[in-house]
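Researcher: Sequence of TonB-dependent receptor plug follows. Predict its structure.
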Amino acid sequence: MKFRILILILFCTSQLHAQIYTISGYVKDLSSGEVLIGATVVDKNQPSIGMAANIYGYYSFELPKGEYTLKASYVGYAMKEVTVNLTEDISINFSLEEEASTLEEVVVSATRSDENVSSVKMSTEKLQIQRIKSIPALLGEVDIIKSLQLLPGISTSGEGTSGMFVRGGSADQNLILLDEATIYNASHLLGFFSVFNPDAIKNVEIYKGGIPAKYGGRISSILDIQMREGNNKKFQASGGIGSISSRLTAEIPVVKDKSSLLLSGRRTYADIFLNFHPDKDVSTSTLYFYDFNTKFNYRFSDKDKIFVSGYFGRDKLGLGDLFGFDWGNTTFSTRWNHLFNEKLFLNTTLLYSDFDYGFDISSAGSGFNWNSGLKEYNLKLDFDYFLNNNNTLFFGANVINHVFAPAEIKSEDFNVQDFSLQNDYALETALYVSNQHTINDKLSLEYGVRYSSFAKIGPDSVSIYEEGLRKSAENQIGTEVFDEGQLVQHYGGFEPRLGIRYMVNSKSSLKASYNRMRQYLQVATNATAGFPTDRWIPADYHIKPVIGDQVAVGYFRNLKNNKWEISVEGYYKWLQNVVDFLPGEDVLLNDRIETAVADGIAWSYGAEFMLKKNVGKTTGWLSYTLSRTQRQIEGVASGDPYLARYDKPHDISLVLSHKFSERLSFSGNWIYATGAAVSFPEGRYNMNGQSIPFYDDSKRNTSRMPDFHRMDLGLTYQLNSRWKHYNHELTFSFYNVYNHQNPFSIEFREVTNENPRFDPTQDGPVTSTRPAAVRTSLFGIIPSVTYNFSFN
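Model: Prediction complete. Tokens:
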């Protein structure tokens, strides 16, 4: 009898399981065919049952046999409902149409309206491209990086620069991805503009903490940027003519509904105006940058799709025949999406990144040429497995081959010998697995682990130093030579990740996260702005990888039907093996970089507050960050804790947009930040008749630049058009509208006394010199105008 009951239970369980079916498919834009990242598909009568689409627009979830009304939604688009009689696994693709009402309001977020509360994600920010384009910009150049600097926990290195410092991390501790390819230097014109043309960008997301296990290689943040795919239904073009640059984007349907090609270019033309300068050296100078983005995709079927994308950008600066400087990025991404079945999704990616820079200096009878750079070859496998409605697994692997070429110098002077630093080679690998787990309506988790490994390989020549003494030429006791492919040094370890979300009620939640990251590459520089001459160095025989741990907790609440968002996050981050430079050392031409640096620990902590209004005629946010960042490294600042260069205790940003009508909109932002921590000279001394400032390294970064504040305003006016498919507008921007002179640098030098004294023993008044701090400010008020257009 018991045996029969057991058989009956197993039979019923089997039958019950057989009645569960999978619904899957893609969510796309009706007019262009672009996938909608993060669009949600749910059961209308059970909104808790459903799924958000991944970065390729794919969703999958389960329901029992029966009749359902499925609802697909995406902010800024009209909701679409489909009624299905579920008797088998089915595939349903949704095409959503933009709502006409979006002309009357600006939407801050591109995701579901309560995602900040309901999602496990924390310390993560998304910015819609339309929001980024509405923010007033320097010389009218819309800038993704500068827009991110207005978010809590993200600060800038100085006036106008695109360096980004996230929760106390340095600029090189941010992994910047464009279609998954690494961008090693994201700035144009020595940091004043970023390399990302917003016309070519679809999605921008930055992780400041709670970083998913699929990402690794940097300890502070992950900036994940996806390019647009292009319209696969009809030809479309857009562009703009601005104060210093023009841009043009074309979207071409190669095979309608199956394939498209995106071409997007931008170039400055400041060099054109130099041709009219009377000085020959100036008139023959060069000063410009350009970007070119391209992306091709082809859908073979609902199960297979390929993407091929590339970025090519370059800066050129030169003063006649005397000096030339250029640098740039090249990336290629080839991706294959394959759907094994309705539950298992694979993205296979081949990546190539190349960053290089060079400069040449010429003078009478002599000169030299310098070239440097690094390359990266990357293979990634990323699987999404939709196990059931409560569990989604992510797992994969990746292999990166690094090649570093620190410097090669060729001289035009026969009396000067050519010089080069040895190239470095390394292999970085990783495996990861994670799970998004919904335990019940209240509690959800995201947990996983990543194992990363880094092998420095030959050919290489390593100096051996006497144990217990400082690594220096005087203490070198030998050299070890490694042949090509031979292992020089190996590092590796586990990187656990954990995120927790607890719903207090339908409008508020508590979240917590922990992540460990390992970073095997660092930048050797004494600057903070992210200059192209910064030298990337790998972990090696002497230099260990940086290990970072971060914990964060937060409270998130929505008000008035998700129109308002309030969030408060606190974090603590601690780092091991952080490198800083020893007093008086140079790194640019140092073939034994370990002699110029020392390692130690660092820590940062803070609180981030944000109030955001998402919909309506007036939208925007107010953010405030309270933070502290310190380091302690033996041999630096007498071994005592000292402030990091980018420590800024207070950082406030106010960003607003208002839609007066369908044709006229206003935008503005106001920024305030504590001045950066700096080292000022303690005095001066004379050497060979020159007055040289003296710095006391025991007082490293004990002074501060003046506090920074600035207001920018913008106005956009939609022009009338005689043609049905042609739209155009004028955007007016006023950077630093109240003309505050924020110092970019402070130089200490001898200046002439403005009040000469009278000496009866001399013939006439006597002038004198005195030491003074001389401020340099780059930008006063800067008006600009940009003409934007689009047609199809």
